[in-house]
Write a structure and sequence with these properties.
The structure is a homodimer. By secondary structure, the first copy, chain A, is of the alpha+beta class. Chain A has one domain (about 5-155): Orthogonal Bundle (Arc Repressor Mutant, subunit A). Chain A contains 5 helices and 5 strands. Chain A has a 3-stranded mixed beta sheet, with helices on one face. In chain A, strands 1-2 form a two-stranded antiparallel ribbon. In chain A, helix 2 (about 40-50) packs across helix 4 and helix 3 (about 55-65) packs across helix 4 (about 70-85). The longest helix of chain A is centred in the N-terminal third of the chain and has 19 residues, at about 15-30. The structure holds zinc ion (4 copies). Chain B binds a DNA duplex through helix 4. Chains A, B: Belongs to the Fur family. Chains A, B: Keywords: DNA-binding, Metal-binding, Repressor, Transcription, Transcription regulation, Zinc. Chains A, B: Its cofactor is Zn(2+). Chains A, B: It comes from Rhodovulum steppense.
Chain lengths: ~160, ~160
DNA sequence: TCTTGACTAGTTATCTTATAACATATTCCT
DNA sequence: AGGAATATGTTATAAGATAACTAGTCAAGA
């Protein structure tokens, strides 16, 4: 769907991009017997609207506007479900959440965060993960989860004035 | 001082470890003309007491007990100074801060966080950083800062019961 | 059918983390 | 000494996250 992560920073047919990711997620949920309930589904759709990370309260506002509950746990629970099952990722550096571009596929994402436009891309991180494990090995540390995030400038924002 | 990051998870003379790091930081501050004032110095000492990350409010409590201000900005400002000048690191995953084990040396730290004992080690991340840049390259993304953190089990916590 | 248990979604209340804005004091340089 | 820059302190508030409880849904089994 976006195997190399190049989509987010390139101009593309985002309606198709969004719909594809959603359909993909639905198929995965179906296959795994997970209940993609209305709030959860809507939360995912909201995250899929842009290639940016959204704070839990941003998502909550949107959900509340649409008739779902207006209290923080509503958003946090939906997001927790999405993250737990691989439909979304949590971006620690931003205290925010973003839809996963590869739901259902095992992958270690590398997040590239543009400090100018807030764009977020999910690059393939297998090699980075391997080298992280190599770094941890000599210390006898057993890696279970990792977060790999970079802040910088996306191609579009590297232009003139910075 | 701990070039390979093995110290944190191994039993060692921590008094010497702490004093060495502090002395090193002082030398760096001196050389760079930075003012390691009493609050800042004390905040660093507090971080150096253990190989764990501390929340800003934990540091604040300690500072307040010792006669410094009791309001959040007191801790946040001291910590911001330490991070900005490379005497400490911010651990995003934990919303916490830890003393840097290599102040004054350019380095990309890889943080290894033990989920059982909260121990924190700072492994050398040059290779990981390089592979991250390689992952970002094809997207045309210019990396400026990165955070690389892993959660797992340190050698001591891999024992029997988990 | 009715009950029980698992799960979902809603609420109130509270906690933790972080920053804005302003006042005072200190330090550094001329 | 005077003035600029830096540092420390305050109050108040914003932003992010969770605990604890209540109630609705739904399917399996008595
Ligand atoms: Zn898109
Ligand atoms: Zn993903
Ligand atoms: Zn030590
Ligand atoms: Zn360091």
């Amino acid at each position: 769907m976006d195997p190399d992560g190049t989509l987010a920073f390139a101009s593309h047919d985002h309606a198709a991009c969004r719909d594809g990711a959603l359909a993909h997620a639905e198929a995965v949920a179906e296959a795994k017997g997970l209940r993609l309930t209305p709030v959860r589904r809507r939360a995912l759709e909201i995250l899929l609207e842009s290639h940016q990370a959204l704070g839990a309260y941003d998502v909550l506002d949107r959900l509340a506007e649409e008739g779902f509950g207006r209290q923080p746990p509503v958003a946090y629970r939906a997001l927790e479900f999405l993250v737990e099952h691989g439909f979304a990722h949590r971006i620690r550096r931003l205290n925010a959440f973003a839809a996963c571009m590869h739901p259902g596929e095992a992958h270690v994402p590398v997040f590239l965060i543009c400090s100018a436009c807030n764009g977020l891309a999910e690059a393939p991180g297998a090699a980075v993960a391997a080298s992280l494990r190599q770094a941890a090995g000599p210390l006898g540390f057993r890696v279970e989860r990792m977060s790999i995030e970079a802040v910088g400038l996306c191609p579009a924002c590297q232009g003139g004035s910075e």
